[in-house]
Amino acid sequence: MKRVLLLLVVWVLSSCSVLGHHKTKNMRSTGLVSFLYPDGNLPQENARPHLKLPLNVGLAFVPESHHGPQLSQAFQQELLQSIQSNFADKHYVNQIKIIPSMYLKHGGKRASLDYLKQMFAIDVVALVSYDHITRRSQNITSLAYLTVVGGFIFKGTEFDSSTMVDLALVEIETKKMLLRAAGVAQSRARSTDSQAKVSYDQLTRKNFTSAMSQMNGNLAVALTDFEMRLRNKEDESIKVSHRPGYKMQVGGLMWLLLMGWVLCRRRTTA
Hints:
Elements: H1 2-20, E1 23-29, H2 32-36, E2 50-53, E3 55-61, H3 73-88, E4 93-98, H4 113-120, E5 124-138, H5 150-153, E6 157-171, E7 176-191, H6 196-231, E8 239-242, H7 252-269
Parallel strand pairs: 2-8, 3-4, 3-5
Antiparallel strand pairs: 1-5, 5-6, 6-7
């Protein structure tokens, strides 16, 4: 009897060492800066983007730099469409084109912005990058995974996921960023061993959707500020001209916002 109890104790302790403290980490990341400036040459500080209104805008995910699991093309398309609506109602935007990520890897290498400009006839490009980390661990109920049915009944697998998405609107000729907007999300989940892959995929989708929703809210504010910069003739950081036949619309509310914005700028620079 004592021998049986001893074997049972050894089995429990060894199981705890194998299962109870097992942790793994999965990371997905896209580097915006390394994509824009692969040679390390940042744009000159005095470079002045020339924006011809209305703008032709490209929208794409920065490709991942490693060969691990990536977001599916269908999910990327879904997320980009949620961003597209922010630009669609802006009168200073002529059209916004979603660019599949495969075009950002031209000839097996990361494509240049000049290539995207020629390929899609765009003036600026909105690049979406992200950092996504999921930590997977097993709690005490994972001991049941050693049985035949334990992996189907007990939720011994835990996930802790963090996601940040970032959008940068870049003028192609100078490679200068015109605006940025970001969103973050964090969530947790528990799962059985048999449903771990499904739970991981669902958590990833949930986090990206939540982070993208927050980013879209911040983007709406950033685009309003950007429109005021387009209207402000005293803003020397950009040069604005109009294509033949285009005239920038002006509403009463926008005039009030613009005047308030200009006054705030003057006070902060005084």
